[in-house]
Amino acid sequence: MRTPVAIIGAGPAGLLLSHLLAGRGVESVVLETRTRDYVEARIRAGILEQSSVDLLTAAGLGERLRAEGDRHRGIHLQWPGERHHLDFVDLIGRTVTVYGQTEVQKDLGRARDEAGQPILYGVRDVALHDLGTDRPYVTFVDADGHEGRVDADVVAGCDGSFGPSRAAVPDAARQTWERTYPYSWLGVLADVAPSTDDLIYAWHPDGFALHSMRSARVSRFYLQVPAGTDVAAWPDDRIWQALDDRLGLSGWTLGTGPVTEKSVLPMRSFVQQPMRHGRLFLAGDAAHIVPPTGAKGLNLALADVALLAPALAGLLRGENRLADTYSDTALRRVWRCTHFSWWMTTMLHTGDDPFDAQLQLSQLRWVTGSEAGARGLAENYAGLPIDFAE
Ligand code: FAD
Ligand code: DHB
C-alpha cells in the first residue's frame, strides 16, 4: 500500500490529522491496534478549550459539538469552608466546553467514514522503518493475521504514550523530561445530574477532588488516591463518602446515583523533543504527557495536529518551512501546558507536609482574590489561541 502520510494511531490526534490533511487534498492511511468500538468507548478527557472548539468547527466537525456541547463560563476553586468562582468570560472573554473525548472520537470517526478514509483497526506488531530517508515505511500484521506494509513520504506518530513512534527516535537524537507524582486519580462516572453549574476543583487535607460532568444526567468525578491504588479498594459507598467530605460545603448537597465506571489513572509529566526525526513527526501523547489537572492533554493533541497538517501538506509540495519549524513551534505550547498542568496539580493535591499545605492555601487565596492571579489561571485554562506560538 502506498500513501503520502502513514498515520500511526486513531486517537484524536491521528484522526484529526487525517481529516485536516484530507481537507488540504492529502491522502493518508491510519493504523490502529485497538478496535473501533474500544477507541470510541474509552472514557478520558471532557473539557475542550475554546480554541479546540473553534478548530473542530472550522474543520466541519462542529455540528453535534454545538448542539450537545455544554459551554461553561468558568470554574469553582474550593478549600474547606470556601468556594470561589472564576469567571473566564469576565476575565478574558473566553469559555470552555464540556464535550467528552468519546464524542470527539465518534465525530472524527464518522467524518472519516464519509470521506472513505482507510483506517485499519485491530493491527499489531507495528514497526517504523527508514525514517532517515524520504521513503519511510511501516510494517504491521492486520486484524486477519496477514502481514502488511505502508510505504509513505512521511510517518505521523500519533500513537499515544505506549506506541512505538516515540521510541523510533534514536536515543542520541532525543531529549526527554519526566516527572512522576506520588498520587493517581480515581475517575468515576455516575448516572446523576451534576450538583454544580461549573466544575469544582477542591483542595482538601484528605486529597484533591474534582466534580465534572458529561451531560445533564451524567456526572464525572475524580478523587486523589495514592499511586498504585487498587480500584477494588474503592466500593461505591466509600467513593460517595469521600466526595461528600472533600467537596462538601454548608448549604450545598452532592447528588448521588449509580456508578457506571471507575478506574485509576496514574499521573505523570513527560516531554520528548524534538517532535520530528527525519520523516517521522510526533503529535499528541506520543510526544508529551501532562497530568490531567487542568484538562490539557486532549487540547494539546488537537493543537499539535492543527500545526502539523499544513506543515506536512507543505512538505509534500516541496515547501519545507513549516515542517522545519513544527517541533519548535509545537513545543512552545507543550511547555506552557506542561507548566500549567504541573502548577494546577501541585497547587491542588495534598500530601503530609504542613508547610506545603500552607503554601497551597496561600496560592489558592491569591488566585481567587487577585484579578492578576485569576486572569493567569483563566488564560491558561481556557486555552491559548491556536496561533499562540506561530
Ligand atoms: P491517544 O488518545 O492515546 O491515541 C493514541 C492511539 O494510538 C490509541 O488509539 C492507541 O490505541 C493507538 N496505538 C497505540 N499503540 C499503537 C500501535 N503500536 N500501533 C497503532 N496504534 C497504536 N486528558 C484530559 O485532558 N483530561 C482527562 O480527564 C484525561 N483523562 C485521561 C484518562 C486516561 C486513562 C488516559 C490514558 C488519558 C487521559 N487524558 C485526559 C489524556 C487525553 O485523553 C490524551 O491526552 C489524548 O487522548 C491524547 O490524544 P492522542 O491522540 O495523542 O493519544
Ligand atoms: C475533566 C478532566 C480533567 O482533567 C479536568 O481538569 C476537568 C475535567 C473531565 O474528565 O471531565
The first-to-last residue Cα distance is 35 Å
Low-confidence stretches: none
Strand order, biggest sheet? 6-5-14-15-16-13-17-20
Name the average pLDDT.
96
How much is the radius of gyration in Å?
A: 21 Å
Fraction in helix: 25-40%
Biggest sheet descriptor: 8 strands, mixed
Shape: globular
Count of helical segments?
A: 11
Q: What fraction of residues sit in β-strands?
A: 25-35%
Number of strands: 20
Question: Which ligands does the model contain, each kind named once?
Answer: flavin-adenine dinucleotide, 3,4-dihydroxybenzoic acid
Your description of this structure?
- This protein has 390 residues and is an alpha+beta fold.
- It is 36% helix and 27% strand.
- It has helices spanning 12-23, 36-41, 50-58, 63-68, 88-92, 101-114, 236-247, 297-316, 321-348, 354-369, 371-382, and strands spanning 5-8, 28-31, 47-49, 70-72, 74-79, 82-87, 96-98, 119-120, 124-129, 137-141, 147-151, 154-157, 175-190, 199-202, 209-213, 219-226, 259-273, 276-277, 280-282, 288-289.
- The strands form four sheets. An eight-stranded mixed beta sheet has the order 6-5-14-15-16-13-17-20.
- Helix 1 runs parallel beside helix 8 (297-316) and helix 8 packs antiparallel against helix 9 (321-348).
- The structure holds flavin-adenine dinucleotide and 3,4-dihydroxybenzoic acid.
